[in-house]
């Protein structure tokens, strides 16, 4: 058995695999996850530091917000390639081309469905027409950038001979990467591997392009299928942090990377990913999207390196390789979770923030450090989650229109729950009001609605502890329904009522921002 301490056998030379991260595009398509420009930029910076080769930053035609995000990320990043997605239409391709035109390394990713089901029911187009569209739009994309990816959507359910024809047309038109998605998570490892082997063998020019996997997790096979695709000749893997994405999600980046690293004997490949940054990246994505990582999730779940049973603990004490095939520090679980406390200085705090993937301005750092010190007075042990909670809360509150100044809630078994709240409006003016409700939370949300004059339906409300112990910080998330859109907000505090009020207010502030945008912006389409 190979373990972390076993002497490594002489390894064959590793073939490089490109990691194409689509957290900001396919990942953001997860129900409930939507990110603003600032959040997307923050994630993109972390992905670049992680060593991601290509970052798919969005789908520029879908909204002005998506266009702006792709464009801002493309303008800033210098190490990773930045891609924008486009359907196989002139309007889409031009918009994606415009969005990545300032990138140091820009890519346009064009896709067109090819399977019989999609041709007949979705596109209502004949095979020849799809080939023509592919050729025209890949050529158009090449007039913007030299790096063009083409995806025959639902490739894994497309007749192989027809798939080969489409791929051939895309290569002839100038595509440099051919991505073959398992769009609905239907394929199996052997089938998916065989598809790549067939295409690489039969399509003229296949040796001039990079083939890529893109697997969805409907049957829980996304990672296994991606690895099988690599064994079949693919040299790019499309994936997302924490495996987020449409429906059951995409192949998870951290699982792909660690499978290749840990089972190098089976997968003689390498990636540029700095695995020690995986956990911080996972935390950031989870926190900004509001999609919690399940405890037993491989690599980045809280239990991934926790040993509970006596037999396992005994084995671990004798030799770690008995029950661990990777070391926690290899994937970024901090060894120093408890070391920060009230005696820690600003330098140690800043270093830890950087290890966690945050780069703050001096001004942001000064505010965060003050809040950290205040928390140290309230709480004995400061965990990484506490530090992250402060930063996330701070970054979110930087965008606030209303701020919470005071909160008083009266509740009990016999009285009527009442909340009195003072908010500061965008000019800093305090506004106070009170309301009753079915319970303390209901009363609190009612009074916030009254002060802000924004009413929305509460569709989801969750509170969880982000750290341990009776002095733990609570994180509240709310989801509001407003004008047929779901808007999320989160708040953090050692007091869960305060965390809930902050979360509610964050969502209300988002609604305000969206309302302003709708009034002041003409949509591009
Ligand atoms: O799943 C899929 O087919 C996609 C394409 C747009 C690449 O996400
Ligand atoms: Zn997809």
Short note summarizing the structure:
This protein is of the alpha/beta class and 525 residues long.
Protein traits:
8-stranded parallel β-barrel; disordered N terminus; binds zinc ion; 525 residues; 16 strands; 3-stranded antiparallel sheet; alpha/beta; binds 3-methyl-2-oxobutanoic acid; disordered C terminus; single chain
Account of the protein in words:
The chain has 525 residues and is of the alpha/beta class. The protein has 16 helices and 16 strands. The protein has an 8-stranded parallel β-barrel with strand order 2-3-4-5-6-7-8-9, surrounded by 8 helices. It has a 3-stranded antiparallel beta sheet with strand order 11-12-13. A 3-stranded antiparallel beta sheet has the order 14-15-16. Helix 2 packs across helix 3 (90-99) and helix 7 packs parallel to helix 8 (222-231). The chain binds 3-methyl-2-oxobutanoic acid and zinc ion.
- What's the story with the biggest beta sheet? 8 strands, parallel, barrel
Determine the structural class based on helices, strands and strand pairing: alpha/beta
- Distance from N terminus to C terminus (CA atoms, Å) equals 57 Å
Strand content: 15-25%
Q: Count of DSSP E strands?
A: 16
Evaluate the radius of gyration.
25 Å
Q: Order of strands side by side in the largest beta sheet? A: 2-3-4-5-6-7-8-9
Associated small molecules: 3-methyl-2-oxobutanoic acid, zinc ion
